[in-house]
Every structure is written in C-alpha cells, then in structure tokens.
Amino acid sequence: MNKTEFDLVVVGGGPGGYVAAIRAAQLGLRTALVEANHLGGICLNWGCIPTKALLRASEINHLLHHLGEFGFAADNVRFDLQKVVKRSRQVAGQLSSGVGHLLKKNKVTVFDGFGALAGKDGGRRLLSVTKDGKPVATLSAKNIILATGARARVLPGLEPDGKLIWSYREAMVPTEMPRSLLVIGSGAIGIEFASFYRNMGAEVTVVEVLDRILPVEDEEISALAHKAFVKQGMTILTGAKLGPLTKGADSVSLSVEAGGKTHAITVDRVISAVGIVGNVEKLGLEGTAITVDRTHVKVDARCFTGEPGIYAIGDLAGPPWLAHKASHEGVMCVEAIAGRHVHPIDPLNIPGCTYCRPQIASVGLTEARAKEAGHAVRVGRFPFIGNGKAIAMGEPDGLVKTVFDAETGELLGAHMIGAEVTEMIQGYVIARTSELTDAELKETVFPHPTISEAMHEAVLAAYDGALHI
Known about the structure:
Number of strands: 25
Helix content: 25-40%
Structural class: alpha/beta
Radius of gyration: 24 Å
Shape: globular
Number of helices: 13
Strand content: 25-35%
Distance between the termini: 67 Å
C-alpha cells in the first residue's frame, strides 16, 4: 500500500469520527481521518465542552451571590467576562489538541481538508480531499465512514448576523454581557444558553412554538423545569407565534403572541436555537444508493447506507443528536466492518442530558409514550426534599421519576431533574441495557449519604415502598 491507500477512511473528526478512527486502528485497520476544520468537531470546539465550561462559570457566579445561605459573606462580587470566555476556549483547545495526540498515538493518518466521495477503483472507494478549493489528495479505501455532523438550522428572518442575532457560536464568545436576551427554541441548546446568561445576570426570555419547553422530556419534568426557570426570573412563552424582527442600532424588537396575549419584546441580543440540519452538501452522494431524508443520511441498524462500503454515523445519520450516540455508533460501525459481532444500538437506551440549572436527564420512554405504546405502568416519584445529601448541599429542589411495566417489572423509562442528575442517569441506563427489572433495582444497595439514593427511593415508590417521604 502507498500512503493514500487505506482499509478505512473516516470523513469528519468529531466525537463520532475520531473515535471510529481510533477504534479502527486498534483493530489493525490502516486508517485515515479527513477533517476540514478542527479535530473534535462541533461538540468539542463549539458545543458540548466549551458550553459546559461556561455553565460551570455561571454556577459559580450563582453560588457567589448566595453565600449567605452557607454562612459566608463577600463584597463586590463580580466577574470578568473575557476571562470566562477565554477559559472556555482554552478548555476546548486543550481537548482538541488531545484528540490530535490520540490519533497520532494510534497511527491514524490525518488529512486536513474537505472529503467527498469520488467514485470507485475496482472494489475500492475513492475519496477526494481538497483544501480551500485546491486538491490535497485522493484516498483509496475499501470502506468509508461519513461522520460530517450537523450545523445550526437557520430560519428566514432569523439569520445570525454576528452582532444582534446569534447562533451558538456567537453565544459562546460574547464580547460583552447583554442586559437582555431572547432565546428562540427551548431544546437542550436553547435552555443551556438561557441558563448560562440568566445565571450571569442577564434578563432572559425563552420563546417556544410548542406548548411546553424541553418537549422531548417527560411532561412532568418539563413542567418542573418551567417552574424553576420562572422562579429564577426567566420569562417563558410557550405556544408562541413570532412576528417579524426589527433591528435597531444595538437592539432587536418583535411581537410574540402567546397565551392569548401579544407581547412586545425589545432585547439586546437574540439567540436562535431552532434545531440542526445534517451536513450532506458536496459529499459526492449523487449517483450512489445513499438516501437523504430531511438533510440526514438514512442508515440501517449497523450504520450501513445501502451503498456498498459507505457508512454514516452521528448527527449526519439522524436523531438523537448526541455526541455519545455518535461515539458509540462509531465503535459499533468499525467493529462490524472488522467482522466482529455487534449489537445494534437501542435508541431508547441512549440517555439525554441538559446541563441547565437545575440539570435534567432521562432515558427510555416518558410516562405518556409508555401508555401510548400500550403498557400498563407503575410510576414512582421521589423528591429531593426527602434526600439528606441534597438538603445538606442546599439543593432540595428536584425529582426522580421512574416508569415500570406493571406486568413484567421492566424499567421503561427514568426521568430526573435536580443537582448532578446528569452524573446519575447512567445507573438507569445500565439497568435498561442489562434488562434489569424492579426486583434487581429494589435489591441494589445505594451508598449513603448520596443524591443517588433518590434513584432507589423512586424505584421503591413505584411499588408503594418509598421510605423517606
């Protein structure tokens, strides 16, 4: 083989692509990775990681303004926004550099450029790599994994302009703190930004066209989140219809119809968080058997596209649009290519997390979806106010909710809101993946004192056995 011939080429260096490349190299496949921008993709550079650094800063700011509750006092509490943003970018940069080191360590050849399918050469696939419109290389491989991810959806009239209307990119690197902010869209991205800016002192309004915020979550959890955000001072308008935006010199005005009323809103900045679209353009999909459905590549349970030798993973392959789903798909796909036996991913076993304050995490079916699927259910609830560790931490607001099949005891879903629930949800994920029932979960010993005890109590509560409420 020469340097442009590989067993596998991965297009896209995000959490799906770079993990797939590393696993392929570990399995002995000669592997190349093609990335047009930054190793680590959107998640590491402009998504999951830097937003968590920002949210950590906002949590600290919140705590500094509530020191009296813990017996402390501090004068002239303030923050340096540029240092907050700089730390966030440094965290992203450090991890991006780490991805490069891991790829080098595993002997993955990295090409800096844009990859596109370029036909076949006998039984091998060809991929052209260009940079700034100029050819870099033509790669040959038996298999190609497309992991090009997705980008923010742009609606007419809400096009980001870099100043008044922000996408997630501008929202992560503000040069000054807006006094007021409108967030359009209440999914995980919109709510996390709303939480960050509210904790940092901005007046925040969230607008959602559906009848509730966080619409993929259990309705009960969504309602508790709504209540918590309003208590923090956010304005939330659901079932909303937006009028045209009018831009001023340093503000944006619009009218919003919601709840039978018309609200006149003027804010310093607007964040558009209305979903994502797959990066399917210019990939050379024309003339192949690959099907694109609403900007996402259709795949089977092993991420095979239908075109021999071509696979797609992560956000490009459709929902749920989560980094951990992309990484798991990358490993599964590569192991299937290498001839190993793999288990297709069950989407209902993929946890979802929103890192707002309070945090939200879930896995499996909501109560409503479980009933719609024909299950007779037993539901358990346990509030954080009954948990000693939560009270000691000063975090008594929260709830753990479990949904079981009343006949078999199968854990159909688990839904949580409160401090550190994003770290706790994995317990329920393991339970679902291992097909545990209420019997095993009841017998599980949880350490004391921990917030995780609320998980056990929520299981017991489904069977009328909660002890501390």
